[in-house]
Specification:
The protein is mainly α. The protein folds into two domains: 42 residues; 77 residues. It contains eight helices and no strands. The relative contact order is 0.09. It comes from Anaeramoeba flamelloides. Belongs to the importin alpha family.
C-alpha cells in the first residue's frame, strides 16, 4: 500500500497544469512567425497597390499638356470641382492640386492657399469616405 504522502503527491501531480511538449511549443512559435510574416507581406503589397492606383490616375489626367500659367489659371475651377458631388471629379481636382504643389521650382503655393483649396482638402481628410483621396493626401510629400 502506498502511504498517505504518496497519495497526496500523486494528487498534486494530477492537479498541476500539463506542460506543453517541446515539439508542440516549437510548432506553435513557427506558425506564429509564419502568420506575422504573411501579415507584413500583405501590408506591403496593399501599400504598393494603393500607390499604383495613384500613379495610374495621374497618368490618365489630360492636364499634362498645359503650361504652368494655364494650370495656375485653372486653380479656381479645381476648387469648384472639390465641391462637386461626383467623386471622380473630386479625385481629379485633388490630383491636379497635388501635382501643382509638387512642381520642383516655384510651386504655386500662395495661389492654392488663397483660392481656398486647403480647408477643403483638410475636410476631405477628416470627413470623406473615399479612400483613394485620403491615400493621395496622406502620401503627399512636397
Amino acid at each position: 500500500m502506498s502511504s498517505p504522502f504518496q497519495k497526496r503527491l500523486q494528487m498534486r501531480k494530477k492537479e498541476f497544469k500539463k506542460k506543453m511538449s517541446f515539439e508542440s511549443s516549437r510548432n506553435k512559435r513557427y506558425r506564429l512567425q509564419v502568420q506575422i510574416s504573411k501579415n507584413k507581406r500583405e501590408a506591403t503589397l496593399q501599400k504598393k497597390r494603393n500607390m499604383d492606383k495613384v500613379t495610374q490616375i495621374r497618368h490618365t489626367l489630360n492636364t499634362e499638356n498645359l503650361t504652368l500659367e494655364e494650370k495656375i489659371s485653372n486653380i479656381p475651377n479645381l476648387v469648384k470641382l472639390l465641391d462637386d458631388n461626383e467623386q471622380s471629379k473630386q479625385l481629379d481636382a485633388v490630383l491636379e492640386i497635388v501635382n501643382l504643389l509638387t512642381i520642383e521650382q516655384n510651386p504655386p503655393i500662395s495661389e492654392i492657399v488663397y483660392s481656398g483649396a486647403i480647408p477643403k482638402l483638410i475636410n476631405f481628410l477628416k470627413f470623406t469616405k473615399d479612400t483613394e483621396i485620403k491615400v493621395i493626401l496622406n502620401f503627399f510629400d512636397p
